[in-house]
Amino acid sequence: MSVHPSEPATAPPARPALNLVRLGEMARRGEKLVALTSYDATFARLLDDAGVDIQLVGDSLGNVIQGRSSTLPVSLEHMVYHTACVARGKQLSWLVADMPFGSYEADPRQAFASAAQLMGAGAQMVKLEGGGEMVRTVRFLVDRGIPVCAHLGLTPQRVHALGGFRVQGRNDAGAALLRADAAAMAEAGAAMLVLELVPSTLAREITLAHPAMLSIGIGAGAGTAGQVLVLHDLLGLGAGKRPRFVRDFTRDPDAAGATLGIAEAVRRYVADVKAGRFPDEAVHGF
Ligand code: KIV
Fold first, then answer.
1. Nearest C-alpha to atom 6 of ligand 1 is from which residue?
2. What is the C-alpha to C-alpha distance for residues 152 and 41, in angstroms, rounded to an integer?
3. What is the whole-number distance in angstroms between the Cα of residue 61 and the centre of ligand 1?
4. In this structure, are residues 254 and 245 in contact, taking their beta carbons and an 8 Å threshold?
5. CATH number, domain at 245?
6. Whose CA is nearest to atom 4 of ligand 1?
7. In a domain, 2, yes or no
8. Is the dihedral of CA 78, 84, 86, 87 positive or negative?
9. Which residue has the higher pLDDT, 99 or 239?
10. Which ligand 1 atom minimizes the distance to the CA of 129?
């Protein structure tokens, strides 16, 4: 009897399904958390099998799936659709979905209504961008049973207000604001925090100051509890100049000029983050 190729494999999972308690235990014993963006069921299964801890349905899908020049046109409907696709493909990873621009900023009730749709599609946590002005919303969601991942530093939904994709928190005032925003998010109950394009020393300091809020860095050095990359960047498929904090994991480090397959490249990323080989602050840090 043949098995339909699109049916999920039935082999027993080699590791338990991840939840916030398990992720917290891993971080406490010094194990780095590995996150990667994910947008469809096939890749969700591949990432799960490769040992990725956290799959993020990022609104970066506006760039890498839809071919837009920013994340601003991504709608809640798009996010719900891709979240449902990933939820059907993944088994063990923790699933975080981005709240897209315009779906949560107006007030906490608007945020709750949007988050409820994403949770209904299979998300286990929602991520939203912003600092002090979002604290009331984070508390409102957390109080109603929705785990929240905050996102500070370079927040792509505000790219026009920030004047481009640039490192945040470089000067004293910027660093003080980031410290205060991180403290406010931890106090409001955010269980995870993405730090994007932040100097390594500041990201490490924030991580140590708020151990219960799991910090996941992208372009924020090696001192965060975990790392995240955009899947297409990791696979060397990003358009234009590769950002400094990205490594193309399809390039085989053991054989110059050779390339790795997709699953092997993702497994390398997992292994290198877990072993502290990625990111290398001298190469990828700020
Ligand atoms: O949308 C996204 O992919 C993200 C990551 C860059 C953290 O928010």
1. 230
2. 28
3. 9
4. no
5. 3.20.20.60
6. 58
7. no
8. positive
9. 99
10. 8
In a domain, 12, yes or no: no
Over residues 34-63, the mean pLDDT reads 98
Look at the chain and report how many structural domains it folds into: 1
Q: Decide: residue 170, CB within 10 A, 0-12 exposed, 13-18 middle, 19+ buried.
A: middle
For residue 219, what are its two tokens? 């372009």
Strands of the chain (E only): list them: 33-37, 54-57, 94-98, 125-129, 148-153, 192-196, 214-218, 226-229
pTM for the structure as a whole: 0.94
Question: What's the CA-to-centroid distance between 107 and ligand 1, angstroms?
Answer: 22
Find the 180 Cα to ligand 1 centroid distance in Å.
Answer: 22
Tokens 């100049």 locate to: 241
Residues in the chain: 286
2 CA distance to ligand 1 middle (Å): 39
Burial label for 96, CB within 10 Å (0-12, 13-18, 19+), is buried
User: Does some domain include residue 209?
Assistant: yes
Q: Residues with Cβ within 6 A of ligand 1?
A: 37, 58-60, 98, 194, 196, 218, 228, 230
Exposure b/e, 106-140, CB count within 10 A at least 16 = b: eebeebbebbebbbebbbbbbbbbbbeebbebbbb
Tell me the β-bridge partners of 251: 259
Token pair for residue 15? 């590791």
Instruction: Note the pLDDT of residue 12.
Output: 57
What is the atom index within ligand 1 of the atom nearest the CA of 58? Answer: 1
Catalytic residues: 196
Could you tell me the residue range of the domain that residue 103 belongs to? 20-284
Q: Residues 87-94: what's their mean pLDDT?
A: 98
Q: What is the pLDDT of residue 1?
A: 38
Q: Is residue 7 part of a domain?
A: no
Closest ligand 1 atom, CA of 37? Answer: 3
